[in-house]
Each structure stands twice: as structure tokens, then as C-alpha cells.
Amino acid sequence: MSLPANEIVSALSALVGGDNVVGDVARMGAWLSEPRKRFHIAAAAVVTPPDVAAVQAVMRWAHENNVGIVPQGGNTGLVGAQVPRRGDEVILSLQKLDRIRSIDAAAGVMVAEAGTILENAHRAVEAEGAMFPLWLASQGSARIGGVLSSNAGGVNVLAYGNARELTMGVEAVLADGRLYNGLNALKKDNTGYDLKDLLVGAEGTLGIITAASLKLYPLPEDYETALVNIASPEAAFELFGLMRERAGSRLNAFELIPWIGLDIQLRHQMLDADPTASASPWYALIELTRMAGTAPGSLQSALEAAFEATLISDATMAESLADRTRMWAFREQMSECQSREGASIKHDVSVPIAAVPRLIAEGSAAVEKRVPGIRPVPFGHMGDGNIHFNFSQPVGADPKAFMAEYDEAVHEIIYDVVLKLGGSVSAEHGIGQLKVDLLKQVKDPVALEMMRAIKNALDPKGILNPGKMLG
Ligand SMILES: Cc1cc2nc3c(=O)[nH]c(=O)nc-3n(C[C@H](O)[C@H](O)[C@H](O)COP(=O)(O)OP(=O)(O)OC[C@H]3O[C@@H](n4cnc5c(N)ncnc54)[C@H](O)[C@@H]3O)c2cc1C
């Protein structure tokens, strides 16, 4: 695979027009700079096709010329999957395919193009009285194609599922430029392999999603939100059981946050006021949806029961939209706040929900033994068994020296605990470039063979997102 960059730029310009091609590396910043700031290879070109036919033309050309294509949406992925691995690859950005083709609130389906920004999709369906229930802190930039290709989760997976569960069908351009039209809106379709499920979560290695039909839900009348004080992850697990018994599928979110997260955010003035009732070693952010025609008060009465059962020691309920926004800001800023305290070592892992307390206890103890003074910051989607198990450097340590000495060792400790508990080393962020070697080590060998066979069948020349996921 290697055509000179100038030939690539000329060929692409001839195919889709010079306005849709960037060949000057100095103008590629927005497409190259990824959130982790770990991967820095410039592309031979960035192409922004204006329609599906242009995506097909680019893929037909890339297939004939063996040029690696890196599909990109909002460039918010956290594993380096959306940026090049080599300088002769082309970034294909879907940003210009950003039309919402249809919204049918009554039938509960929208068809959105891959470049639609997630937040714009939210607004468009809300204007029609419906809801697309996939919320991420990156939703102002993340695009539908990227969200689906990374099978993103977020804060409402508990009630509505991740991206795969919210997808009814996809339209995609294959490696050789053929168009797969799978944009159905069927709840039931047993006509063979589920190709949409294959393309969702494929990180752009099997095809380029150009549009998707997505499930919509009725817009809730309101939300009931609280931040509660809990003594331990064990108590959080029991409280989660109680909340599920009481609220069933109306339990929208159950997020775990350690005290250190509050401490860091208050010290760095990231919150305009303390959103919690009082000091506590752990907090749970709990949210219930309230549908039209139902009375408020379910969360209040569930929390009273939890208080009587001594599962919680204190709580504060959101009384206004501003309260709710502040509580969610506290949760959403958990990742960012660690950067204010120097370097941190991060893991996006999941275990069976009942094993979350053991994950946190055993993982923290083992890492603290190995790195004296390190600060565990485990937080996240407790209700999905998905913990962002992060560690902030010891106070006063040199960030670079800390990462150089401990990054690998801490990963090894945490992944050992995760695997022992029957968990996953990538819960919602994917594999990308970051975890290619890890996947080879931990994935069932037969599963890896099946994945390679699928990749070879759909992309025999290996031009779709080369080197990502399977290496
Ligand atoms: C602040 C922040 C918070 C986040 N929170 C969460 C969270 O709560 N839960 C969660 O799951 N993730 C979260 N993420 C990561 C999440 O994966 C991304 O935000 C989002 O899903 C990716 O969308 P994107 O459009 O930016 O995709 P990109 O980053 O552009 O791409 C992601 C992957 O999809 C591929 N791709 C992109 N578009 C297409 C397409 N049209 N066809 C085929 N392949 C394509 C890329 O090649 C790459 O493999 C967060 C990220 C940030 C920065």
C-alpha cells in the first residue's frame, strides 16, 4: 500500500472535487488531533465526500489502488481507531453526510446519515416529541456513524441499551464500493445473519456506515434525580438491587462516584456549588424517568426505604433543572478532572455487576501495593458493571516518570483482576490501536479466528481501517 501523497490528492480531487479533499498537513489538525493525544501520524489526505455516491467512488478507487481508508466521524474516540497508523492512509470523514432523512415519532424510528452530530439528532427528535436515548459527554461532536461503529454506551444503557441495541438497520459502503442497503425498520427479521450487528461496533474495519435507522422512545414527562451518600461499593450494589425492584425499566442511570472526584472538582473550581448533601466516601447518581400521566415521588419513596435499610446515609434530590444539570456535570467531569491532578492511568472495563465491589477492592489494593501513594479513582456505570477504573498519580510525582514507570504494570494488575472476575478489558471504548495487542492476549482464540475470517471475507485487501482492532 503506498501511492505518493500528491497522487492520492490528485486522484481524490478528480473523483469528488478539490473542495472535498485536504492534502496540506497544516490544515488537517481537526482530523488528526484525537482526545487521548497519543497517536500523531499525519494522513496522506483527508476526504469529505458530500454524498453516498462519492463515498462509493472513493472506496472503489481505494480498492483498485490498495489505499488504506480510515473512516472518521466526530474524532472523539478514545482508542485511536479514527486516526491513521501510517502516513499513506486517507481519512474519510463522514461530516458532510449530516442529513436526518426521516423521523417517525409514532412508529419510533428515525433515519439519520452517518455524519449527523448526536446532539443534533437529539434536538431533531425532541422537536417531534420523541427521544433518542443515547447520551455521552462527547455528544456535541460525536457523529452517528462513529457512535454506532464504536457501539457507544453512555449513561442510559441501563434502561435503553447501547448503540447496537438502538440500531434497527444500517446502510453501508463496502470495501470495494458496493452499497449494502440494510436500512430496515423491522423489530423482527430472521432472514439470516444479522449484518447490522456485525457493522455496528466494527470500528470501521468492515464497511463505512452512511446512514442508520434508529429506535426512538417516548419523551419522558420528567426525570427524578438524586445524589446519595453510600458507605461502600457493596452498599451501592445492594442499593442498585433495591432501585431495580422499585423502578424496573424506569431506572435510567445508576452511576458510582468516589469522594476523591468531588474533592478534585471542588478544589479546582470545576463546580459552581457542592452538589452533594454531605461528605461521604462514595456517591451514587440515580435517575428515574417519569412518563406522562404518572405521579412524581417514586425516587423519594425508594430512597426512604433505602435509608431505613441503612443502605444510604444521606441524599439530595434535584429540585430544579439547574440542580439536575449540576449533578450530571459532577458525573460528566469525572474523566476531565483527573487531568488537573497530573497524569492518570485509565481503564474502561466491565465485570458482572455483582463483582463490581470485588473489582474495586482487589484492584485498588493490588495497585496501591505496587505504587505507593497512587490514588484510585474508580467511577462510572455501576448499573452496567462498567467501571472507568482510573488511577491518579501520587501527589507531587513527576507525571512523565510516573507514566514511564507504572503505566504497563498498573494495566497488567487491573486486567488480571478483570479477567479473573469474568470481565471485559474494553467495556465501551473499543480496541482501536490502543488495545490491539491486549485483544490478542485475552480473546478466545476461536473468536479471533472467526473475526479474522469475517474481516478477510468483507475486506480481502485489508484497506478498511488497516491495523485497527485485529492488528
Ligand atoms: C468526553 C468524552 C466522553 C465520552 N463518553 C463516552 C461514553 O460515555 N460512552 C462511550 O461508549 N464512549 C464515550 N466516549 C467515546 C466514544 O466512543 C465516542 O465519543 C463516540 O462514540 C465516537 O463517535 P465519533 O463520531 O467521534 O467517532 P470517531 O472517533 O470519529 O470514530 C470512532 C470509530 O468509528 C469509526 N467510524 C467513524 N465513523 C464511521 C462510519 N461512518 N462508518 C464506519 N466507521 C466509522 C472510526 O474509524 C473509529 O473506529 C467519550 C469520548 C469523549 C471524548
TrEMBL record:
Q: Which domain of life is it from?
A: Bacteria
Q: Which named protein is this?
A: Hydroxyacid dehydrogenase
PANTHER family (alphabetical): BLL6224 PROTEIN, D-2-HYDROXYGLUTARATE DEHYDROGENASE, MITOCHONDRIAL
Q: Which UniProt keywords apply?
A: FAD, Flavoprotein
Reply yes or no: does the keyword Ubl conjugation apply: no
List, for all copies, the residue spans of the domain called FAD-binding PCMH-type.
39-219
Q: Which cofactor does it need?
A: FAD
The portions of this protein that span the membrane are: none
What Pfam families does this protein's entry cite?
FAD-oxidase_C, FAD_binding_4
Q: What is the lineage of its organism?
A: Bacteria, Pseudomonadati, Pseudomonadota, Alphaproteobacteria, Hyphomicrobiales
BP-aspect Gene Ontology terms: respiratory electron transport chain
The family this protein is said to belong to: Belongs to the FAD-binding oxidoreductase/transferase type 4 family.
Tell me the SUPFAM superfamilies matching this sequence: FAD-binding/transporter-associated domain-like, FAD-linked oxidases, C-terminal domain
Q: Does the keyword Cell cycle apply?
A: no
- GO molecular function per UniProt: catalytic activity; FAD binding
